[in-house]
Amino acid sequence: MSNQITAFESIRRTNPAGNEFWSSRDFSKVLGYADYRNFQSVIESARTACFNSGQRVEDHFVEVTEMVEIGSGAQRRLKTVMMSRYACYLVIQNADPSKEIVAHGQTYFSIQTRRQELSDAEIEEKRRLSIRSELKKHNSQLADAAKDAGVIEPRDYAIFQNHGYMGLYGGLGAQDIHRRKGLKKGDQILDHMGSTELAANLFRATQAEEKLRREKITGKDKANKAHREVGAKVRQTIKELGGTMPEELPTAESIKKLESKARKALKKPNN
Fold first, then answer.
1. Which helix (DSSP H) or strand (DSSP E) does residue 62 occupy?
2. Cα dihedral angle (104, 107, 110, 113), rounded to 10 degrees?
3. Residue 118 pLDDT
4. Is the entire prediction scored with pTM above 0.70?
5. Between 100-148 and 255-267, two packed helices, what is the crossing angle to 10 degrees?
6. Fewer Cβ in 10 A, N or C end of the chain?
7. CB atoms within 10 A of CB 135
């Protein structure tokens, strides 16, 4: 490993949760910016690039105040930006290309970011498969609870499910969600949800079943109302936590492709 690459690793930090990050002030020094103010414009360009890529800027650029040495052992409280690996990749792409270390950094963070993307994608696939499987099971249990409440006919159950969606998706029903996600006729909306959206729907399903059974709700209208109330409560919780509303989350590729991929992997003989 070259000295230039070692420099980037030497300033890498980790928080108590084990997540890695880099201080913008450390980063500016490694890149040879004598005046931090000149580096701030690079950070702003990187922030813009992050936003334009569809990422949440606050997930990658976190502004904090920390004690920084200013010479002769003295320290001063200064604003610093804590940056993720992806943020560093964007920063290095916007830094002064005439600096040799910037060229090395571009190569390093391009490779490392790609590796991280591949790793994250694999984790997301496993999460989707796991949560989707759980959701299938709990939707079956929810159907049983709804049937006990008087929701018996398939058409009535579809209306019941729609009320849950409308609560969780701010008034959008299944057909509205289908159109919003740009799905084709015959596509199932649950098959095109990422892990975060699937988890929200899993919580809705489990809590709706619990409410129907706990309160011994009977009657289609009351069951529909209860399901919508649960969906709305889950939505409110997401809002209070600062999360992205489910209808704003990106459309994922069909989970059936992942299921097929997983089945093929199981059939492969062990080396």
1. strand 61-71
2. -60
3. 59
4. no
5. 100
6. C
7. 21
- Among 178, 141, 173, 144, smallest CA distance to 159 is for 173
Cβ contacts of 80 within 8 Å, gap of 6 or more = 23, 24, 25, 63, 64, 65, 66, 68
- CB of 83 within 8 A of CB of 12? no
Q: To which residue do tokens 């890149």 refer? A: 31
Q: What are phi and psi of 68, to 5 degrees?
A: -125, 135
Per-residue pLDDT at 1 exceeds 60: no
> Comparing C-alpha atoms, which of 93, 104, 73 is closest to residue 5?
104
Tell me the chain's radius of gyration from C-alpha atoms: 24
Question: Which sign does the torsion angle of CA 163, 168, 172, 178 carry?
Answer: negative
Q: Which residue type does 234 have?
A: V
- Return contacts of 81-84, CB within 8 angstroms, 24+ apart: 81/23, 81/24, 81/43, 82/21, 82/22, 82/23, 82/24, 83/21, 83/22, 83/23, 83/24, 83/27, 84/20, 84/21, 84/59, 84/60
Q: What is the per-residue pLDDT across 212-251, written as a single tens digit (0 to 9) for each?
A: 999 999 999 999 999 999 999 999 999 998 889 999 998 9
CA end-to-end span of the chain, whole Å?
32
